[in-house]
Specification:
This protein is an alpha+beta fold and about 110 residues long. It is built from 5 helices and 3 strands.
Length: about 110
């Protein structure tokens, strides 16, 4: 019975692993990661993101389209402008946890 259960769960697990790998790959691009970090605290317009990061608006829009499709950011329309912000608290937590992780001493034995 255990073997049957593992076979039933494995395809879902493999799909989850694929989705996570795609997400981490998306976040592995330095430009996209900088855009995500710019959107963490408050909604910000494409033009402000472009200005803050010294990037072109079309490039920022392209990356935002990918990040939105991956549910890393969400768009908020205010009049004629669209503002982007981290999709939810999970995005903030992932970034905060990774920053904290890299800020810790290595803890290597013999170091």
């Amino acid at each position: 019975m255990t073997g049957e259960l593992n076979q039933q769960v494995q395809p879902d697990e493999n799909a989850l692993i694929e989705q996570l790998a795609d997400l981490f790959s998306l976040m592995g691009d330095p430009t996209r990661l900088r855009i995500i970090m710019t959107c963490l605290r408050e909604p910000i317009s494409v033009s402000d993101i472009a200005s803050t990061l010294s990037l072109s608006q079309p490039l920022v829009s392209h990356h935002l389209r990918l990040l939105k499709a991956a549910r890393m950011v969400r768009a908020e329309r205010r009049g004629k402008q669209i503002f982007y912000v981290a999709a939810d608290a999970h995005v903030q937590c992932v970034i905060d946890d990774m920053v904290a992780h890299f800020s810790e001493p290595t803890g290597e034995v013999g170091a």
